[in-house]
């Protein structure tokens, strides 16, 4: 039995019956629809070394190759970038299936990702398996071993603590996580445990203010606990990376405008020309409208000068590009650095995902408070 106490993102009790019904139906579905509306699109997976302007170059290549970007998510972490981009042919609106054309797209994108000094680590591929986009991004970054690289988001590292110990008498490994609370935190942690082939038998999740406290009792799929110090250390590294990847580094810019061919190329080129570095992006289109979210910093991954932001907004359109509030941790960092305050951070709440439901006969009651 799994018990979750949840609120909406504003901390209010759920009262919308349609939302409650949707949650119930989703949890009751044995085999949920994993297509997520991406049928009829070609999924491109990209990993490589992050740099200022890289996203602009990627979208420019896709536009040149007559690929229309319908949806995309881009994460950066520890100097690496991972992206899952869903495209279709600009002219026919159909998925791109010609093998020679796919090879040409992959080769061009691989050259962009390599840059001048990244010959071996750039990877491009067309994904055939249908999976959850954000879970796939975790898998891609983990395969890229981003968790072994030097952290580039020190403010998260300072507030994040992960401990793993064995409870020998009961045959469990106990994972404790303390960090700043945010949406989809539990999803990120549980997906990582699952992909590393651990089974969660018991867990408790607590949130107090802007802090989250997570405890998991886990075993390998064969029923054994963690057996070595290198394995314990790797699990800690992977969980830390999973929590940091989604951290909203930089100022959040929201673009809402009529979609057109070359829009992403123009927008990201404007970012690059004004010294803005995209650290995370969510691209979506629906009914002829582009609804895109970008998190940007300056070239050194520090807070952007407000004048640069306003200059970009003037070029893209003040009514189209909106500046959203910064997370609270960036205000703390700005105060320490005597930088200008851009906005007021808001509280973020834990977004509760589904715990692994294997070996149900071994599961105990999951206690959760929020």
TrEMBL record:
It holds the Pfam family ACT. Coiled coil: none annotated. GO terms for molecular function: amino acid binding. The keyword Ribonucleoprotein does not apply. Signal peptide: none annotated. InterPro entries: ACR1-12, ACT-like_dom_sf, ACT_dom. Keywords: Repeat. The keyword Repeat applies. Residues 43-127, 174-249, 252-332 form the ACT domain. Binds amino acids. PANTHER family: ACT DOMAIN-CONTAINING PROTEIN ACR4-RELATED, ACT DOMAIN-CONTAINING PROTEIN ACR8. This is ACT domain-containing protein ACR. The gene is LOC107904499.
């Amino acid at each position: 039995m799994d018990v979750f106490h949840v609120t909406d993102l504003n901390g209010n009790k759920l009262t919308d019956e349609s939302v409650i019904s949707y949650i119930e139906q989703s949890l009751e579905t044995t085999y949920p629809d994993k297509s997520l509306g991406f049928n009829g699109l070609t999924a491109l997976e990209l990993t490589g070394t992050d740099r200022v302007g890289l996203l602009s170059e990627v979208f420019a290549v896709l536009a040149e190759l007559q690929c229309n970007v319908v949806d995309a998510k881009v994460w950066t972490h520890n100097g690496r970038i991972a992206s899952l981009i869903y495209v279709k042919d600009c002219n026919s609106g159909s998925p791109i299936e010609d093998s020679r054309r796919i090879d040409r797209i992959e080769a061009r994108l691989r050259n962009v990702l390599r840059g001048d000094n990244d010959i071996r680590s750039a990877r491009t591929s067309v994904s055939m398996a249908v999976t959850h986009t954000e879970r796939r991004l975790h898998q891609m970054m983990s395969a890229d071993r981003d968790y072994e690289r030097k952290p580039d988001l020190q403010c998260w590292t300072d507030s994040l603590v992960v401990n793993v110990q064995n409870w020998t008498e009961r045959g469990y490994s106990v994972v404790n996580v303390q960090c700043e609370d945010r949406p989809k935190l539990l999803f990120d942690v549980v997906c990582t445990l699952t992909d590393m082939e651990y089974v969660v038998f018991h867990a408790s999740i607590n949130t107090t203010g802007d802090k989250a406290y997570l405890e998991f009792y886990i075993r390998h799929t064969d029923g054994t606990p963690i057996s070595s110090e290198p394995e314990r250390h790797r699990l800690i590294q992977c969980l830390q990376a999973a929590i940091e990847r989604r951290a909203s580094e930089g100022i959040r810019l929201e673009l809402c405008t009529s979609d057109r061919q070359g829009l992403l190329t123009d927008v990201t080129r404007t970012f690059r020309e004004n010294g803005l570095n995209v650290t995370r992006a969510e691209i979506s289109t629906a009914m002829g409208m582009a609804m895109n979210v970008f998190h940007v910093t300056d070239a050194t991954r520090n807070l952007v000068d407000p004048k640069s932001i306003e200059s970009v907004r003037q070029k893209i359109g003040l009514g189209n590009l909106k500046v959203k509030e910064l997370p609270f941790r960036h205000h703390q960092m700005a105060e320490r650095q005597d930088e200008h305050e851009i906005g007021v951070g808001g509280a973020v709440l834990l977004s509760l995902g589904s715990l692994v439901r294997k070996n149900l006969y071994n599961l105990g009651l999951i206690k959760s408070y929020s």
